[in-house]
Amino acid sequence: METGFVGKAWTFGDHIDTDMIVPGKFLQILEPAGLAKIVLHGADPEFAAKVRPGDLLVAGINFGCGSSREHAPVALKAAGIPVVLAESFARIFFRNAINIGYPVLEVPGIHKGVTQGDQLSVDLATGAVKNLTTGATFRAKPLPPNILQILDAGGLAPLVAREIAAQKH
Fold first, then answer.
1. How far is CA 64 from the centre of its chain?
2. pTM value > 0.85
3. What total of structural domains would you count in the chain?
4. Which residues span the domain enclosing 124?
């Protein structure tokens, strides 16, 4: 798993729900590439056309609230956004993201400390986040070892498969 990222920040506010990330009218789309084409359509219908692989997402509190649909983190991951940085995440979105091997970090102060277009560097291993445009630094809440293990394996299913294979030997 890659642990360091540098990219352009896209900013969103508080309470960005799963229906804003993948609106219900698109739930028939199941392929990640298709979901990437409509990611965050409910918040900004042009976002999917503007975002580039490697860009970073910054949000306020309660990111991913709403339904339990896994489409939301799948769409973000498929769009090439390597990590979401938010003040806080809805519990089920956080677990869905981790379960598919998609890193999300709670970073106190990040929403007020970043303007859209700022260049950020993120180190998952240490939790260090730096706004390269302003020089401001932030510290993410550390991810526990079991979550880092899931991310490193590429998700919960690959981790379990790896552990089952290891037990057979």
1. 10
2. yes
3. 1
4. 4-168
